Amino acid sequence: MTTVVTDNCQRCRFTDCVAVCPVACFHGDDEMLYIDPETCVDCGACISKCPVEAIYEDPIPPDKQRWIEINAARAPNLPPVESKQAPYPGAEERKKSLGF
Amino acid sequence: MAGLGTQDNPLRIAIVGSGPAGFYAAEALLKVAPAVAVDMFERLASPFGLVRSGVAPDHPKLKEPIHVYQRIAASPGFRFFGNVTIGRDISVAELQGCYHAVIFTCGAQSDRTMDIPGEDLAGSHAATEFVGWYNGHPDYRDRVFDLSGSTAVIVGQGNVAVDVCRILAKTADELRGSDIAAHAFEVLAQSKIRDIVMIGRRGPAQAKFTHPELRELGSLADCDPVVNVRDLDLNAASRAELADKSNRAAQKSYEVLQQFAARPAPTHRRRCHIEFLKTPIELRGKGRLESVMLMHNRLTGEASHQVAEPTGETAELSCSILFRSIGYRGVAMPGVPFDAARGVIPNRDGRVTDGATTVPGLYVSGWIKRGPTGIIGTNREDSVLTVNSLLADLPQFDTAARPGAEGLQALFNARSVRLVSYADWQKIDAAEIRRGEAAGKSREKFTRLQDMLGVLASEEQASAACVAA
Ligand SMILES: Cc1cc2nc3c(=O)[nH]c(=O)nc-3n(C[C@H](O)[C@H](O)[C@H](O)COP(=O)(O)OP(=O)(O)OC[C@H]3O[C@@H](n4cnc5c(N)ncnc54)[C@H](O)[C@@H]3O)c2cc1C
Ligand code: SF4
Ligand code: SF4
Hints:
heterodimer; A: two-stranded antiparallel sheet; two-stranded antiparallel ribbon; B: seven-stranded mixed sheet; six-stranded parallel sheet; 33% helix; binds flavin-adenine dinucleotide; binds iron/sulfur cluster
């Protein structure tokens, strides 16, 4: 099982996902968040919280498969994001442009 | 007098209940200020609430939040007092006298009943009891579940109902190696159940289970999921519900049901039937359960507000055991307001309320605050909100220093309360893991308080012998 953050999260950072993660396995850089597959328990709590549907669980669609490797590679080298943060400026507009 | 929240006068908080809501509240408190002292009280000798006694034994990954709780428990400022029932061993008023504030995170300890004739027949059970029994909860250690008949009925279609179906459907080989309680494994390994029937009041678009849990029913070693394709016909309102973007999870469950319906005829020893639009109206049997009368329903009303309305058509289904899984319920805490209709402690943003007024110093989080909805992580967000309310109230707190659990010591002694500390629990934990190793299990739980205390007594004896030698 895998749960991954994908491209819709870029420059968004609503971080509603982080607040419900039971094991605090989100990590972030300036662009977006990533899930550490080593600690994630695949509980799915974060998925319905994400306002832009950036998080996928199994079965992960073919066009999102590459994010499995990206999450696994980046998350362990980035600082954890454990609590809700302010969204990026312009996040609301981006959300609209993504159709949400 | 040192100000509140300083080394000399730490903010002392009591947390009642050691499930996810309790631990996440402790985490949030210990994160904000260094001079916070958290004492957590738990009625059992073991911590972690439903993560230990609810989450299914064959889902070990979902129990991993326990590692997070172990780290929280190791934080300076945190203490655990197990085997203390608040409201019985120690009253809420006594607790309040020793702390600046009390947070109730005592979960939903009871369940909803169907309130139909025959519900008390032997063979009719609450899923709560069955779950507690296979998970080794001491309250349910001596329950008896007769699995010698061929048909089991589960009323309700949430994830707990799916857990019960799956545990009944799995073979002994599939259950072996999990941390299922040994007494339950022995009974389940001999089970004669062939047909498991999970019944929902409403339709496939309204079922509460989530698709990963549901999908698992399709990949068991010796059980086929059975869904009647006619049951998947949807009315216009249900189609609209599934088309709603915010309802994507229900759409995915519906797709899994379609896959189940499209399967070839069942070939395995067991079958798990998923049935919709039926409500039990009576349990029948001479002395013990023999059948359940089901009323057929149709859905009426607008999308997202559809209700099940009886059609008048009934059917009788033979069964020897039935589990109701129609919701957990909180129980009242003596001395604290209670909303009996909802089974929760009434509150505003986590502050306990009594009618229109707020009760100073009392807070609530988790299932006893929200009702029995949400998964483990939901309680993290919830407890952060409650702790934020508490911190916002700090200016109104009485700043006098409080003694914490030291102030309760005389009462513990007078009432012969045998406290279980976190260090004690770690010894019990280690003993459970050792016991499991022999059987190839991650742990073999102790299911009786006396056995847990026995571990502590024998360790004390051993160390006394060392000193003497
Ligand atoms: C059968 C079942 C399976 C589940 N499976 C999953 C799953 O797989 N994944 C998932 O994410 N979520 C699952 N959940 C949901 C999850 O367990 C809950 O969201 C969560 O446990 C609620 O946390 P809580 O702290 O409010 O209550 P609880 O976990 O119930 O903790 C309450 C604690 O308070 C103690 N207590 C009660 N009264 C007193 C008292 N008077 N004095 C002292 N202590 C007291 C209790 O003994 C208990 O330890 C499941 C729930 C159930 C019922
Ligand atoms: S809620 Fe969604 S978009 Fe926002 S940070 Fe989390 S994954 Fe990214
Ligand atoms: S699936 Fe659960 S554990 Fe994994 S990132 Fe989401 S909330 Fe955290």
